[in-house]
From TrEMBL:
Keywords: Hydrolase, Protease. It comes from the Eukaryota. This is Peptidase A1 domain-containing protein. Residues 1-234 form the Peptidase A1 domain. GO terms for cellular component: extracellular region. The gene is ga12831. It comes from Eleusine coracana subsp. coracana. One of its GO terms (molecular function) is peptidase activity.
Length: 241
């Protein structure tokens, strides 16, 4: 097994990390070298309970009635890109009850292998291209019955007054063959801003590459079935796994 040791680390690896385990599609990643599937279940980002990663899967993974319906979508191969990303076929986004007018091409790989949609356990918040983000941003402003705290900066936040319910529209991601209906805690977070309580959208604008981040993957069983080239997910209480 190939194993690397970093002595002079730069970039994002300059604090107190003890190491990084690569779980991508490259030949040097841990699952690739062990020739096993992998599965994880992220606990609440704001909690203190550890999350679980499994290499090789238990036979009863999806047998418990307490677990939600398992949904599955296929991975997309990017022949023009040698990266280790896991590409998915994202088809659209619904905010509230409205399917946004986003062409599927906004999420798709281009002919030269750029763009597309990936799922990544190492990225925090989900990022969309500026055009897609603007549609999501505007839909939340139109459908959220709360004062907008900041319409022109990110993250998009709404003001919560005493006794105000933090009701916000649903956020749903539509994949090829699967639908991820996100719980509220997977796309909204609350904080104090200059003494004002606000609730904010955990989605950011980025480049042409759409990234489904780990904030949106909280309390989901996420299974990378490498043998069958599929991704499966189901709701879970990850602190009880």
């Amino acid at each position: 097994m190939a194993f690397g040791c970093g002595l002079n680390n730069t970039g994002i690896f300059t604090s107190n990390e003890t190491g990084i385990a690569g779980f991508g599609r490259g030949i040097l990643s841990l699952p690739s070298q062990l020739k096993v599937d992998n599965f994880y279940c992220f606990t609440n980002i704001t909690g203190s309970t550890s999350s679980h990663v499994l290499l090789g899967l238990p036979a009863n993974l999806h047998s418990s009635s307490a677990r939600g319906v398992v949904q599955t979508t296929r991975f997309i191969h990017n022949p023009a890109n040698l990266s280790t990303f896991y590409y998915l076929s994202l088809k659209g986004i619904t905010v509230g009850s409205t399917r946004l007018p986003i062409p599927e091409s906004a999420f798709a790989l281009t002919n030269n292998g750029t763009g597309g949609t990936i799922i990544d356990s190492g990225t925090g918040m989900t990022t969309f291209s500026p055009d897609v983000y603007n549609l999501v941003h505007d839909a939340f402003i139109a459908q959220t019955r709360l004062p907008v705290q900041n319409a022109t900066t990110t993250p998009l936040c709404f003001t919560l007054s005493a006794g105000t319910k933090s009701d916000v529209p649903k956020l749903i991601l539509h994949f090829d063959g699967a639908t991820l209906d996100l719980p509220r805690d997977n796309y909204m977070f609350e904080l104090q801003d200059a003494g004002v309580r606000v609730t904010c959208l955990a989605v950011n604008p980025g480049g042409n590459l759409t990234i489904i981040g780990n904030y949106q993957q909280q309390n989901l069983h996420v299974l990378y079935d490498l043998a069958n080239n599929m991704l499966s997910f189901a709701p879970a209480q990850c602190d009880q796994v």
